[in-house]
Amino acid sequence: MVKKRGIGLKPIILGILAHVDTGKTSLIEALLYACKQLKQLGRVDHGTAFLDNDHQEKERGITIFSKEVILPKQRFEYTILDTPGHVDFSAEMERTLQVLDYAVLMISATDGVQAHSETIWRLLKHYQIPVFVYINKMDMAFQSKTEIMKELKQRLCVSCVDFTQAETDFQEEIALFDEEWLDSYLTRGYVEDALIQTAIKERNIFPCFFGSAKTMEGITSLIQGWERFMKACEYPKENSAFVYKISHDEQGNRLTHVKITGGTLLSKTKWKDEKIDQIRRYHGTNYQLVQELSAGHVCALKGLHSIQIKETIGSEPNVKTPILSSNIRYQMLLPTNCDAFAFMKQLKSLQEEDPSLHLTYDEHKKAIFIQVRGEIQMEILRNLIDERYHVQVHFDDGNISYRETVVTPVEGVGHYEPLRHYAEVHLLLEPLPPNSGIVFASKCPSDVLDTHIQRTILSTLAQEELVGVLSGSLLTDMKITLLSGKAHEKHTSGGDFREAAKRALRQGLKAGNAILLEPYERYRLEVPTMYSSRAFYDVERMGSEDVTQEERDGYTFIYAKAPSLQLKSYALSLASYTKGKGRFYAVMEGFYPVKHQEKHLAHIDYSDRYSCSG
Fold first, then answer.
1. I need a labelling partner for 599 at 20 to 30 A (CA). Which of 136, 142, 177, 570 fits?
2. Are 175 and 192 a contacting pair, CB within 8 Å?
3. Residues 10 and 296: beta-carbon distance below 8 Å
4. Cβ-contact 88, 374 below 8 angstroms
5. Could you tell me if residue 233 is left (phi over 0), alpha (psi between -120 and 50 degrees) or otherwise beta?
6. What's the Rg (C-alpha) of the chain?
7. Those residues with Cβ within 8 angstroms of residue 69's Cβ, 6 or more apart along the chain or in another chain
8. Which helix H or strand E contains 584, and what residues bound it?
9. pTM (predicted TM-score)
10. What is the tens place of the pLDDT at every residue in 175-206?
């Protein structure tokens, strides 16, 4: 069972985020050991790490599924969420971000800021999460702290500050960022901790710590930094919670993982007509049953069977749409004796656990389609499906996955009028910048529509996979605002408004200036300078944008972004013409308008099967 909790300590939910092979799991081992939760350190390469308990994780030496451990200290009780570092499983990592109070971004001193590190940094900005940076593997570093800090300031943010330098030095550096901090420094000779705590919480300063997780170097300093400079969150008294993960235990019980965002959660109470049988606090694979749990904690609830990821209870939906997703859609190739329609029903639990898979059944083709990010995730899925459903599946070569948005504001109106019922919803659809996802808001007066009804409408839209009318692709980069609505005095239900809201959305998309978006990737191309002419020819041929370059140590480094379709299989071509000496790194950048939209739409050949009429 779990070792003793920190009674009376303020809860902090802390995520550990990193590029693969940075040493994330080793850091968690070191933290557990330093907090006396482990008697001896485990190792990833020996398969003895406390959190890598899945057999596929042990075989590959990577984290695949997010997990948690609990570390009580003097001021706070930290719940550490371990997230996957491999880019193929970044959607699993992103799902945890909405429940974090703080994040620790790990950077390898031997590799520097990787492309995926920059993607994580962008996600942390999107979700407005305060960040501590831990530079690992300093025992093997060939760069000095000064050189590493210069790269962090250039690649991440100028507000990264080395908190391991002398107290007077980092205090003086902090003071120069803000007049109030400078006044405190000049008056007292230091910047007050309370000011630094607020600055970190508001993402105006990013403290940096150095060390080596394997040798325990810098671990005590890091924990002391948390204790001194983190700030407890304040939560409302009204009961509320947010679902961020679905899993199943070894007995097959469905577990709904939530962060309590207000009040107190009680066991045996009802949530949307389902009873909570158990409240579990996990520490690795072990858990403790509790009868109640206060705001600021995460836990797993047993007994809920229909609640989905991103659902909320007792509060207005404030859910940001995930940015990361696969840009390739694959057909699942089934054995000849396996009926696709029936098997799709079996796959429900898989879709619940990972909504980013976007599992869909195509009635016309009698086929199942899925979106995955790479070969490793695909192989893991094949193994998981074989173990869980005893079906051996394969995948085709895949096709590009598009998105849709609007380019100008447009209002959509939806009516739903079944016998003796009436519901009407007015929505404003507005374009947002790339990588904004979908944002929901309300400008509807409470005397026009009751607050509960407004919440029902917005919750429905937030929980749906909203698709466009051009290609049936998912919507993104759009703000959806509830403007108004109407109801029958006696015969209108929440279900009527849910249907009217979906019709309002589609009517607005039909009436507005909808456009098709295609995925772009930000890439870094490293080639021996003798091959740079060929590399630049390829960069131009692939329609690259934002191109910059630098020369270093006989290599040409090219940074740019380009459509994912153009980059497909480029790594193989690069290896061929550079005789294996070239390197190519790419991460998802976002979705941008396609060039020659009509050509793309003709290739997709989508027939909108849904009606917008009331």
1. 570
2. no
3. yes
4. yes
5. beta
6. 25
7. 28, 31, 32, 37, 50, 51, 79, 80, 82, 283, 284
8. strand 583-593
9. 0.74
10. 999 998 999 899 998 999 999 999 999 999 99
